[in-house]
Amino acid sequence: MPGAEWARAWTQLVEIMWSAPVVIGYRTGQMLVGGWPPSARDRREYTRMWREKAEAFGQAYVAALTSPPQDVARMATKVVAPVHRRVVSNRRRLSRR
Question: What is this structure's pTM?
């Protein structure tokens, strides 16, 4: 179906734009309330935060390099997918706390 890949890519981008501020707000709040030195739970969260970013953007980079340039919509979806998956899952996980 023409346009389906573009719709998927835009949907992913909108979910990222909606979810990222929630995740940033939660983590910033935890940093402000957590005190010094950070607890073991907070240190795990900070480590996870950095590791996830590096992995997601590394996977997006590989997807951008390995996707055929003829199908730009599919390439956009593949590039956005790793970041989308992590941001949305973090929003869900952190909102349960």
Answer: 0.84
C-alpha distance from residue 83 to each of 23, 48, 96 (Å): 13, 14, 20
Entry field: residues in the chain: 97
Query: Cis (ω within 30 of 0) for the bond into 37?
Result: yes
The answer for residues whose C-beta is within 8 angstroms of residue 23's C-beta and 6 or more apart is 87, 90, 91, 94
Task: State the burial class of residue 40 (Cβ atoms within 10 Å of its Cβ: 0-12, 13-18, 19+).
Answer: exposed
CA distances to 1, 48, 64 from 76, in Å: 17, 26, 8
With 0-12 / 13-18 / 19 or more C-beta atoms within 10 angstroms meaning exposed / middle / buried, residue 28 is exposed
Predicted confidence (pLDDT) per residue in 26-38, tens digit:
999 999 998 889 9
Burial class (CB in 10 A: 0-12, 13-18, 19+), 79: buried
